[in-house]
Write a structure and sequence with these properties.
By secondary structure, the chain is mainly beta. It has 3 helices and 18 strands. It folds into 2 domains: 38-164, Immunoglobulins (Immunoglobulin-like, Sandwich), CATH 2.60.40; 170-279, no CATH class. Strands 1, 2, 3, 4, 5, 6, 7, 8, 9 and 10 form a 10-stranded mixed β-sheet that branches. The chain has an 8-stranded antiparallel β-sheet with strand order 15-14-13-12-11-18-17-16, with no helix packed on it. The two termini are 22 Å apart. It comes from Galbibacter marinus. This is Lipoprotein.
Length: 280
């Protein structure tokens, strides 16, 4: 199983949502690991995948599940004051609903392994028959202090989405409808890798527009996409207020290994264009 470290170097200061005091007043949100006592890192991968029985109505279709797994390894990234800590707890939420406890751990590191769909749904009030494509189970680590306060590591939440099977991992040739294989005659191969949450990172996500169709040859417009039963959504690094190569839709064909992205560019005035990624 491929494991991916999701602790980014730029995120050593995490945000924590606090629990309530006994009098019902909620503490403010803290943004310093000094408050929690320890910073964590998480490695792992999770998936809940199946075949919708009515692909024309995903929002209401029952799903024939084939994969349900979660593997997490939680460890220390940096320590400020472990004497504050009583224990750690893994909690889950279904579609943003009520928080449910999965397990409690006395110290770090610890490992979590779920292999049955019932382990995901337990305590949520729903069953496998209730699950639909697009539903999300959120797993997060909560640290409990000896003084009764607790904090959730929200920056390291682990989301597992109910989805159709998709595997985009690999290296792709790229062309786009604006400048073909690039203004210099070629767009180098692009790697696509899976994130722990089941999304996909693209080294170049705008079809090569910024780096290979303009004079900005040192700027790479990477991005992340989500694929839900062949339908694609996502964002690129230079979209936002820049409007460069924004992903507005797309499709993934598992059988042919072809990813098609529908994009739009306002910065250069190019407008709508299409990029095709073909797995090698």
């Amino acid at each position: 199983m491929k494991k991916i470290n999701i602790l980014l170097a730029s995120l050593f200061i995490a945000s924590f949502t606090t629990s309530c005091d006994k009098d019902g007043e909620e503490h403010p949100i803290f943004e310093n690991r000094v408050i929690a006592g320890v910073e964590i890192s998480i490695e792992g991968e999770g998936a809940i995948q199946g075949v919708p029985l009515n692909p024309e109505d995903l929002a209401n279709s029952p799903v024939d599940f084939t994969v349900s797994t979660l593997e997490m390894h939680v460890d220390k990234a940096s320590v400020e004051d472990e004497s504050l800590i009583s224990n750690f707890e893994l909690v889950k939420q279904f579609n943003g609903g009520e928080e449910t406890s999965v397990a409690t751990y006395e110290s770090l590191p610890f490992d979590v392994s779920l292999t049955e769909l019932s382990q995901f749904t337990e305590g949520t009030g729903i069953s496998a028959d209730d699950l639909k494509i697009g539903d999300i189970f959120k797993f997060a680590v909560k640290v409990h202090h000896a003084n009764g306060k607790s904090y959730i590591y929200n920056n390291h939440a682990f989301n597992v989405q109910v989805n159709c099977f998709a595997d985009l991992s690999g290296t792709y040739t790229v062309t786009n409808s604006y400048c073909g294989a690039g203004s210099t005659g070629t767009i180098p191969s692009v790697k696509i890798t899976k994130t722990p949450d089941g999304n996909w990172n693209l080294e170049t996500a705008d079809g090569g527009l910024l780096q290979y169709c303009t004079q900005n040859t040192t700027l790479t417009n990477a991005g992340t996409i989500s694929v839900v039963c062949g339908e694609v959504s996502g964002t690129t690094d230079f979209c936002g207020s820049n409007g460069i190569g924004c992903i507005v839709g797309g499709s993934w064909d598992q059988e042919t290994g072809v990813l098609t992205l529908e994009l739009d560019d306002t910065f250069f005035g190019i407008g709508g264009y299409t990029a095709t990624y073909t797995r090698q």
